[in-house]
Amino acid sequence: MTTMPVTTGPPRAPGDLRMTPGRWVALLIGVPIALALIGWTGFSFIAGIGRGSFPVQVTIPVHAGHLVANVGGGDITVHQGQVGSGEARLTGTVHYSLVRPRFTVSGSDINVDCHFPNDNCGLNATLDVPANTAVQLTSGGGNMQVSGIDSDATLDSGGGDVTVARIGGIADVTTGGGNLTASDLGDIRQFTTDGGDVNGNDLFAPQVKTESGGGNVTLVFTRAPANLNIISDGGDITLVLPDSTTTSYAITEQTEGGDYSNSVPTSSSSSHTISVDSGGGNVSIAQAS
b/e per residue, 224-234, with b = 16+ CB within 10 A? Predict the structure, then answer.
């Protein structure tokens, strides 16, 4: 007896693709993602060729020798300039794509209301402050460059790089993840970054507290510091101190696995104290050659 073959439907033509549940899921997920990527690529192209800019110049009040300014985003350079004692002057350019944003100043708040979530919209400006003015500057994420201020500078960037130099008063600097670069400073309260590197040169501050969320910390001093407290959550710590045969340091170190090297004079009874905690990175303390 001959057995007849059992069929469940008409035979598939060569090249036919059977739609399984897994393939339906892949289509349902993949097609919207592909369309979104195509749309975003097209938007980015149009935004790139539709760029524009316009200049801005405004004054910001200075109260009792103290300037407070909050910048929503963008790069800003601050220095001491030829302005009246009761005001600072902000001069710069707003860059944008497609739709011109609204630039507003309300008290200490400086805002650029960008319409689209792209990197082509923001402020690039210079802030001139009068002499004997303490500066408290906050940015939503842009880069800061501050130099030549003869009073205190308190700086907080949401994530951009911060460069600070020649501050006559106390420097207190925080960034949400950018690099922090300092030079020619004599009074430092604290340097803090959530992940970037900290680099300091020509420092003569007696006390420095530095915290990095994982970046490297390199500090070079031209005068023997009285107290250093350096913390990094995994980056390397490098300290270069002035060459001296008369100054010794009481050093407390924690490397949690990293290498440690020290070539400066030490004494547990010294009034010059150094505390370093690398969280796993290497620690090097040496005298300048």
Answer: bbeebbbbbbb
Phi and psi of 24, rounded to 5°?
Answer: -60, -40
Q: What is the pLDDT of residues 92-127, one digit of tens each?
A: 999 887 788 888 888 888 888 887 655 578 889 999
Q: With beta carbons less than 8 A apart as the criterion, state whether 212 and 231 touch.
A: yes
Summarize pLDDT for 34-58 with one digit per residue, the tens. 655 555 454 454 445 557 889 999 9
What pTM value is reported for the model? Answer: 0.78
> Which amino acid is located at 42 in the chain?
G
For residue 106, with 0-12 CB atoms within 10 Å meaning exposed, 13-18 middle and 19 or more buried, which class applies? exposed
Q: What is the pLDDT of residues 180-231, one digit of tens each?
A: 999 999 998 899 998 889 999 999 999 999 999 889 999 999 999 999 999 9
CA distance 209 to 55: 39
CA distance 60 to 83: 11
Which run of H or E residues covers position 284?
A: strand 283-287
**Sequence letter at residue 89:** R
Position 264, amino acid: V
Task: State how far the Cα of 214 lies from the Cα of 197, in Å rounded to an integer.
Answer: 8
pLDDT digits (tens, 9 = 90+) for 240-285: 999 988 899 999 999 888 999 999 999 999 999 999 999 889 999 9
Residue type, 127: L
Tell me the C-alpha to C-alpha distance, in Å, between residue 278 and each of 210, 230, 238.
Answer: 11, 8, 10
Nearest to 284 by CA among 232, 222, 209: 232
CB atoms within 10 A of CB 137: 22
Query: What's the distance, Cα to Cα, between the start and end of the chain in Å?
Result: 102
Nearest Cα to Cα of residue 72 among 179, 157, 175: 157
